[in-house]
Amino acid sequence: MTSSVGVVTPQRMRFDQPLPLQSGAQLPAYELVYETYGTLNAQRSNAVLVCHALNASHHVAGLHADDPKSLGWWDNMVGPGKPVDTDRFFVIGVNNPGSCFGSTGPMHTNPATGRPWGADFPVCTVEDWVDAQARLIEALGIRQLAAVLGGSLGGMQAQAWALRYPERLRHCVAVATAPNLSAQNIAFNEVARRAIVTDPDFHGGHFYAHGVVPKRGLRVARMIGHITYLSDDSMEAKFGRELRDAELHFSTQDIEFQIESYLRYQGDKFSEYFDANTYLLITRALDYFDPARAHGGDLARAYAAAKAIRFLLVSFTTDWRFSPARSREIVKALVDNRADVSYAEIDAPHGHDAFLLEDPRYLAVMRAYFERIAADVTPGARA
């Protein structure tokens, strides 16, 4: 039987040692916001780190006491009796530097100027985020993680953990992800970024000082992104060519079709809570991730460092943003290294967003694999 982790409280940890970044810059003293669910066992061997995707945060499961609608973004996956069972695992959700959800980011004060960082916040890579997370894990007294788990951009962080700290995790679970972005994906990100930076209210990224938010750009960026998270079939099934009103209005400005209404709603909602500079930073981190680049484009050589880790890769048939073919590239690189890898390709209609949804076959795969992890890291546990 499954239930919720209940009310959870975000925690905050400060790091006074600057974080060196791949760009050559460094992030001075910074804070990370995180949440934990479950109990760390006596051996400190049952910790699972969950890495968030583009617009998510540290709030993975449960509710915040002051907001009854604040259900964690992966609450169907993490909790008592759920695939990532918090009766067995100590689960950690962490918010990355540069985010707008509490960890040090563009909205916080730049100690060098006394003003918000804005566009001056240093560009972080997926690897930089993982380095920051590794410090948190160390500060929590965890020498080795049972698993690092992530979907989409979170899956890239899970990969980076396996490649950067192979001795510090036993399992890597990467869902709906890729070893790098395709040119098409980089193109989508670039269009979204241009929508933001050309918004008259952007002010070069220092819009906080002007008391405005570049909502028009954020709306368009979110609409572009949202289209790529859905499959053609799911959009057709949900909206088709349905009109909002009974008749055509012969307008090029007004909403005519229901899909237009839906996208504008998603864009409006996003522009109310997400930070424009964070969107620029995160999409650039997506663009940059490419572990094979340091190995002449040879992904198998990149993964040689991680061959002692056990992997689960999961993809979805209708995910055209991070298609199954991209996951199979990672699987091949692991097989070439004779690594222990499991791969599941789920026939699901929902597109990229399937990794967040209630698909029984997907959840069954995850449950079975995490039962294996529990048996692996907890002596005497039932597999």
Automatic annotation (TrEMBL):
<feature type="binding site">
    <location>
        <position position="222"/>
    </location>
    <ligand>
        <name>substrate</name>
    </ligand>
</feature>
<protein>
    <recommendedName>
        <fullName>Homoserine O-succinyltransferase</fullName>
        <ecNumber>2.3.1.46</ecNumber>
    </recommendedName>
</protein>
<comment type="subunit">
    <text>Homodimer.</text>
</comment>
<feature type="active site" description="Nucleophile">
    <location>
        <position position="152"/>
    </location>
</feature>
<dbReference type="GO" id="GO:0005737">
    <property type="term" value="C:cytoplasm"/>
</dbReference>
<dbReference type="GO" id="GO:0009092">
    <property type="term" value="P:homoserine metabolic process"/>
</dbReference>
<comment type="similarity">
    <text>Belongs to the AB hydrolase superfamily. MetX family.</text>
</comment>
<comment type="pathway">
    <text>Amino-acid biosynthesis; L-methionine biosynthesis via de novo pathway; O-succinyl-L-homoserine from L-homoserine: step 1/1.</text>
</comment>
<feature type="domain" description="AB hydrolase-1">
    <location>
        <begin position="46"/>
        <end position="358"/>
    </location>
</feature>
<dbReference type="InterPro" id="IPR000073">
    <property type="entry name" value="AB_hydrolase_1"/>
</dbReference>
<feature type="active site">
    <location>
        <position position="352"/>
    </location>
</feature>
<keyword id="KW-0963">Cytoplasm</keyword>
<keyword id="KW-0012">Acyltransferase</keyword>
<dbReference type="InterPro" id="IPR029058">
    <property type="entry name" value="AB_hydrolase_fold"/>
</dbReference>
<comment type="function">
    <text>Transfers a succinyl group from succinyl-CoA to L-homoserine, forming succinyl-L-homoserine.</text>
</comment>
<dbReference type="GO" id="GO:0004414">
    <property type="term" value="F:homoserine O-acetyltransferase activity"/>
</dbReference>
<dbReference type="Pfam" id="PF00561">
    <property type="entry name" value="Abhydrolase_1"/>
</dbReference>
<feature type="binding site">
    <location>
        <position position="353"/>
    </location>
    <ligand>
        <name>substrate</name>
    </ligand>
</feature>
<feature type="active site">
    <location>
        <position position="319"/>
    </location>
</feature>
<dbReference type="GO" id="GO:0008899">
    <property type="term" value="F:homoserine O-succinyltransferase activity"/>
</dbReference>
<keyword id="KW-0028">Amino-acid biosynthesis</keyword>
<dbReference type="GO" id="GO:0009086">
    <property type="term" value="P:methionine biosynthetic process"/>
</dbReference>
<feature type="site" description="Important for acyl-CoA specificity">
    <location>
        <position position="321"/>
    </location>
</feature>
<keyword id="KW-0808">Transferase</keyword>
<keyword id="KW-0486">Methionine biosynthesis</keyword>
<dbReference type="InterPro" id="IPR008220">
    <property type="entry name" value="HAT_MetX-like"/>
</dbReference>
